[in-house]
Amino acid sequence: MTNTKKSIHGEWSSRSAFILAATGSAVGLGNIWKFPYITGENGGGAFVIVYLLCVALIGIPIMIAETMLGRRGRENPVHTMQVLSAEADADKRWHYLGWLGMAAGLLILSYYSVIAGWASAYVFKAFSGSFFGADVTAVEQLFSDFVGNPMQLIFWHTLFMVATMLIVARGVGDGLEKSVRILMPGLFILLALLVMYAMTTSGYFQGIHFLFSLDFNKLTGNAILIAMGQAFFSLGLGMGCVMVYGAYLPKNISIAKASIVIAAVDSLVALLAGIIIFPIVFTYGLNPGSGPGLIFETLPIAFGSMTGGWLFGVLFFVILVFAALSSAIALIEPTVCWLVESKGITRGLACLQSGVVTWLLGFCTIFSFNIWSDVKIFDHTLFEALDYLTANVMLPVGGFAIAVFAGWMMKQQHSAQELDIPSQHYQIWLFLIKYMAPAAVFLVFLHVMGVL
Ligand code: PFF
Asked: 43-58: string of b/e by CB count within 10 Å (b at 16+)?
């Protein structure tokens, strides 16, 4: 059976529209905010290599699988898994995968929106000239005063959630597609300019060395899990979001090619962010492992001292907010899609319901930077615990299940038909999805649990 039905939410108008939107979902805070700081915390080069290997050997095959499942099922992740498990004569419980993904999406969005709120606030800080001539102490003070004030964080988090809900309420074509068209080219131009700036700093080579030197002694088991989790997070995998985007994908688009392009662009943006941040870190004697504040404590120094820094600062944070928006809409889309399809409510109401839940959850992250900074779960603040649980546990488990379903449950005739690629390429994908990806995720988990 080929599913010729179209999604009720509309379809991408062209191949480039899909690639743009999927890239918009992939490229976000994960690349520019998270990748540099976790690379800094985990020692640099060796971590980056493990991350890139995870993208190539686990991420891309799973991205292809997840998009394929979405396009074949053409519905929200829960229903898609119900339809596909029936088609494959597999256990009905596979649809719990859809639930896991939706839960991960909302949990991620709850803290994602808070950090995107920081970026929004920094647009105004840049605009008002706060970075002008600022030294390390001034920039660090600016950041710690800001995150220490819960009311400010609540304000920006609220604003970001409202913007996300308004865009999602308008639906696929209008809302999602248009916002990415201007964003991606703008992001690349700014990153290129900032790379040029980084090349003029005295710490450039030290920064590059940190990012690309292979010192495997610094690599712990937990760092490998974090690198793998980051591959899932950055590509937006394992939570049904790619599945939903796949559901809006017309038949004539090659899923494999699109996935490779998206993964390549996504990794490039992360590496560029690293090439920009670490030279600044070393030029100014900052600590690469300083955590989630890293970009907010490094980039303002650069903007404060470079020619045209005011304009670049404003533009950079504006673009970062837009990159975060195009990811945020992807994080909430599976839940909205499920609410509309299964509860029969309007898109607007579905956005409101899921948005309010996420907004409230966001308070855990906000308070973990100030009034609840002492509240710890296994030595982690609430924000760290949420991030660890979602990126390093839920997404890899979701990705593992997607790989097992696509590789072992689904009939090969169906996956081959859906992917429609030359048979040699199909065999490579099948090997990766059947053996490589599940085994890699499993081994990393065993390693972290101390079994290996
Ligand atoms: N990939 C996004 C980023 O790197 O910022 C975050 C994200 C978006 C994760 C969508 C998961 C997702 F489904």
From this structure: bbbbbbebbbbbbbeb
